[in-house]
Amino acid sequence: MNVLLVASECAPFVKTGGLADVVGALPKALIPTGVDCRVILPLYRSLQGLREKATVKADLGKLFGAPAGLIAVKAEGVSLILLDAPDLFDRGAGIYLDDTGQDWPDNAQRYAALCKAAVHVAQKGFDGWKPDLLHAHDWQAGLAPWYLRQAGSALPSIVTIHNIAFQGLFPNKLADKLDLDPSGFSPDGYEYYGKISYLKAGIVASQRITTVSPTYARELMSEEFGMGFEGLLQSRRSDLVGILNGIDLDAWDPQTDEAIAANYNSRALKRKSVNRDALEKRFSLNANPSAPLFCVVSRLTAQKGLDLLLAALPVLVGRGARLALLGSGEKKLEEAFRQAAVAHAGSVGTIIGYDEKLSHLMQAGADAILVPSRFEPCGLTQLYGLRYGTIPVVSHTGGLADTVIDANDAAVKAGCATGFQFAPVTLAGMVDVIDRVCDMFSDQKSWSALMRNAMRHQVGWETSAAAYSDLYRSVLNGREEGGE
Description:
CATH topology of the largest domain: Rossmann fold
Radius of gyration: 23 Å
CATH superfamily of the largest domain: Glycogen Phosphorylase B
Number of strands: 18
Structural class: alpha/beta
Strand content: 15-25%
Largest sheet: 9 strands, mixed
Distance between the termini: 17 Å
Helix content: 25-40%
């Protein structure tokens, strides 16, 4: 079975968030299930070095006025099809944002071009390979299923919603330029409150819709979390499924990780303290072995609940705990955490930005990782925490609720707790869970048991890849039974 993944990001080549990790890991995880994947991805400026590895090239003529072609590349165990359109993607700054932090003004055309290129591969194949199914990821790939349907193709498609907050909204006046059938601009089509929605186009046109955790799939059908899409998703309830993300167990392995100060496993937890010392030094934090060292590796946004953490810092510091934070995002939060590091020198350390290598040391060196999100489709940092014995402290929402077993009395007695959950996502809830963590940390026997439970938790792709493979086959079988 051949599957074409359509995405704007793919780790380790280009990444702004968890989407890239999923798209980079899933093709390799699917190989044992008999699925051969190709990932079609824009050839951004940062990927120009991959040209040297190109095995096949094809000319697409022009896409929305920009000369375009395809390049086949095999790198890091992933088979890539790169959309070579320099006028659209050979740019500095970010892949979505210009150097002023604003969306590129032609993002509509850029990602429509990606979708057009994907449909070309879907219909005609490339490099001697042709897909049986197209799998679109997030709004940037949302027009691919729509273009397939608009072309009258029988090839089935699936769309995965990684975060419904990002819907790919553009002015309706672009419909003609984007080669969108005007009859589709309706409540039953790609129209969303007077605008074009790439994500809605994908949801409407796909045979199945997936999201990245079972709880998030249920949440999306509610007014609180659906962000205006709840009615549409309720109408597609039978086609909506939540499949948990996994992580790359080779890239994230405390026994072999070259980015950390000392390797360890669940039988050698004392070596974790070497990483703790290194982390304290990196963030200029005081040592205090009697209280936990928390970490945060996150985008700094309201979604992530980090304003609550700011408000709870006096309690955290008052318990003798420390915080190391790495992230970037909303300027107000960036500045607030910088100021917190000054106000609580030695107890709070802040690095604004992103550093992949440092994120590994933080997972290895911290005692607990805080993920107090107001909503979280799946989340990956808590999975890295489980893998590294760094206890996840999470809000009860989305994939966080599906991956962390709260250390309540019953779970602790049963020996199955792996972390801490709290709800509601309020300051009181945040303060309460910090106190719970500090209380348990003072009992090192219980804390060590919690760490071992966490490290035994299955966080790889094996189960999830099998679920995707089964879903692909059910879609293809349904098509055959329907005679399409």
